[in-house]
Specification:
By secondary structure, this protein is of the alpha/beta class. The protein contains eight helices and 17 strands. Strands 2-1-3-6-7 form a five-stranded parallel β-sheet, with helices on both faces. The chain starts with a strand and ends with a helix.
């Protein structure tokens, strides 16, 4: 697979290129960029399969570059020194990202996942991210399942249920989905969308609550008539949400 590395730091570009050459022999680095403008030029010149993209750069960031790239025909591995906003956005699209300094095992893992999905010609994760950045309508989230992944609108989710190290997503009109990540993971992803963890086993979309019944913590009834327990430690936060 052909790769382009876009990073404003020369040392970072060279280190990543040397890691790829040594540990990921199926990847050939064919071009570099140090800004949004030079990154776009490298992408258009080399038509890569993978773009390793720094998020923070002068005169724009990695999200700006993707927004200007038009039809995205490549997979993206974001490289970041850890910014909370960026990580939330990336997690929401299930995109690949590497934290600086780059861990070799994580780099190999990201490349192997992309190789597998590249062979299946699947939807690009970065496309979901860019669609969300551009969107004026419903935001979307990519959910990894045992068979592949599903892309759903956040507003269609009624609630999420912890099932060991998995999460079961419940919807109003479609069958539940068992997702290969923990509820704790999705708590970070969905909290910005007003979802609330009401119990160690449940996180709800408050737009679908139709009834609350008093008790030590109480119970909520969702729009699908499912009754869910509210823990006593979450009761005040839950009630405060409906008083706003």
């Amino acid at each position: 697979m052909k790769a382009v590395i876009i990073d404003d730091e020369k040392d970072s570009r060279q280190i990543l290129a040397s890691y790829l050459k040594k540990y990921c022999p199926d990847v050939t680095v064919c071009g570099f960029g140090e800004s949004v403008a030079t990154g776009l030029e490298a992408i258009r010149q080399h038509i890569p399969d993978i773009v390793f993209l720094d998020i923070e750069m002068p005169y724009g960031n990695g999200f700006d570059l993707l927004d200007k790239a038009g039809d995205i025909s490549f997979e993206t591995v974001f490289v970041t020194a850890f910014d909370n906003y960026a990580i939330q956005a990336l997690n929401q699209s299930a995109a690949y990202y590497l934290l600086k300094p780059i861990d070799i095992d994580e780099l190999i893992k990201a490349v192997e996942k992309i190789k597998a999905e590249h062979a299946d010609n699947r939807v690009r994760h970065a496309k979901v991210l860019v669609d969300n950045i551009r969107a004026t309508g419903p935001q979307k989230i990519m959910l990894p399942t045992l068979e592949g992944f599903e892309i759903v609108a956040v507003q269609d989710i009624l609630y999420c249920e912890a099932v060991d190290n998995f999460t079961r997503f419940h919807f109003e009109h479609t069958a539940p989905l068992l997702i290969c990540r923990t509820l704790k993971y999705f708590e970070e992803v969905l909290t910005p969308h007003r979802f609330l963890r009401i119990h160690r086993s449940y996180m709800i979309n408050p737009d679908y609550v139709i009834r609350y019944s008093k008790g030590k913590g109480g119970y909520v009834t969702m729009k699908n008539n499912q009754e869910l327990e509210v823990s006593s430690t979450k009761k005040k936060e839950f009630l405060d949400l409906f008083e706003k």
